[in-house]
Design brief:
single chain; 9 helices; six-stranded mixed sheet; 268 residues; disordered N terminus; 24% strand; four-stranded antiparallel sheet; alpha/beta
């Protein structure tokens, strides 16, 4: 089970959830024209876990996430999300997958001219036939879930950076997805606010059982929330390490992994 929400690092021997794969990536190549970002990448994400994609700047973390949610088509390979092959070219399957996931983008991606309540109601109005009163109730529940109860009528510009992140998370939770994606959730946040967001992620994972895929390079966050990680490398164009983060920190002999987990500059 996930660790208790204390803000301290997850114990190295924390048990993984069940080994049922909710995401399967096989020999994925990500490229823009002739420029190859990642090549022949394969991994699985297990249902109920917090899975972190990490690595240095420019290694392809966000590019990989955008392939996983169907924003970018792969140059080669296969991605199956919740049983749906999103690389098959079937737009109906891709649309179905997107209704079953929630995404918190780095910028929160809230519509500035809409209140928080309207932002969160948007996917409910688009994808359900619920009456307005039911949508209003769900909006209030989702805001309470992320500690923003009573902020329905606020505009994004009236919120702090951390509050915008939580509001974006409330919208990602609107349709009760069992799979959530986070792109650099701590980016631009002060350390205290970042810790609070980590605690919220842990609480939602434990309370909702949601699977979470998180892109980040924030070391303390990785050690606090992750069940497993993959580490990408720009030069290798792929995965150079996979496993439990504390184990990689203590036992990896790859200098690139050691430097990352111990905050060391490369030699030479």
């Amino acid at each position: 089970m996930p660790a208790a929400v204390t803000g301290s690092p997850r114990e190295p021997d924390a048990a993984l959830p069940g080994r049922d794969a909710i995401i399967v990536v096989e020999n994925l190549t990500c490229a823009f024209g002739e420029r190859v970002i990642l090549e022949k990448v394969s991994f699985e994400v297990y249902r109920g876990e917090i899975f972190v994609i990490l690595g240095g700047s420019g290694c392809g973390k966000s590019t990989l996430l955008k392939h996983l949610i169907g924003l970018y088509p792969p140059a080669a390979g296969r991605i199956v999300v919740n049983g749906i092959d999103i690389t098959s070219g079937d737009e109906r399957a891709l649309s179905q997958m997107r209704r079953e996931i929630g995404v918190l983008f780095q910028s929160s991606a809230l519509f500035g001219s809409m209140t928080l309540g309207q932002n969160i109601a948007l996917p409910l109005e688009e994808y359900t036939d619920l009456p307005p009163e039911a949508i209003d109730l769900i909006v209030r529940l989702k805001l309470r879930l992320v500690n923003l109860a009573g902020f329905e009528d606020y505009l994004p510009e009236e919120l702090s950076g951390g509050m915008k992140k939580r509001a974006g998370l409330a919208r990602a939770l609107a349709l009760d997805p069992d799979l959530l994606f986070f792109d650099e959730p701590s980016a631009g946040l002060d350390p205290i606010t970042a810790v609070g967001l980590d605690q919220l992620i842990l609480r939602l994972n434990a309370g909702l059982g949601a699977t979470m895929v998180v892109v980040t390079h924030e070391l303390q966050s990785i050690l606090t929330i992750a069940h497993r990680v993959i580490m990408l490398d720009k030069e290798a164009k792929g995965i150079i390490a996979m496993g439990e983060p504390h184990d990689l920190k203590e036992h990896s002999t790859d200098p690139r992994v050691v430097n990352f987990f111990h905050r060391r500059a490369p030699e030479g």
